[in-house]
Design a protein that fits this description.
- The protein is mostly helical.
- It contains 6 helices and no strands.
- The C terminus is likely disordered.
Length: about 110
Amino acid sequence: AYHLLSGEKTMTRDKLLLFAFAGKLDLEQTQQLLKYAGLGMLYARDKRDGVLIYALNKHYSVYEMEKLLEDLGLNLPLGTEKSGKWKDGIIEQLGAAHVCCSLQIYS
């Protein structure tokens, strides 16, 4: 997390979205996270973004979100396997604490 906050490394939009789902962020918090990262916010008229907005509003887990995207034939977020499971569950292990910490620093 230090490398991300110091600017030494950057996150992709998809990786931030994975953190948002793992951290149980709502739509407003997720949009804020994307905005602070200088990445495109979710846009409802984009089909994939619309599905992600729906999943955030319904409080889907990472796995539920991946399954929904896969069922609809949409691209899975970067770093996920085609099976719909995050490798070793690492995103959910790291998720909430890192995302919440990052949001507090930037707000």
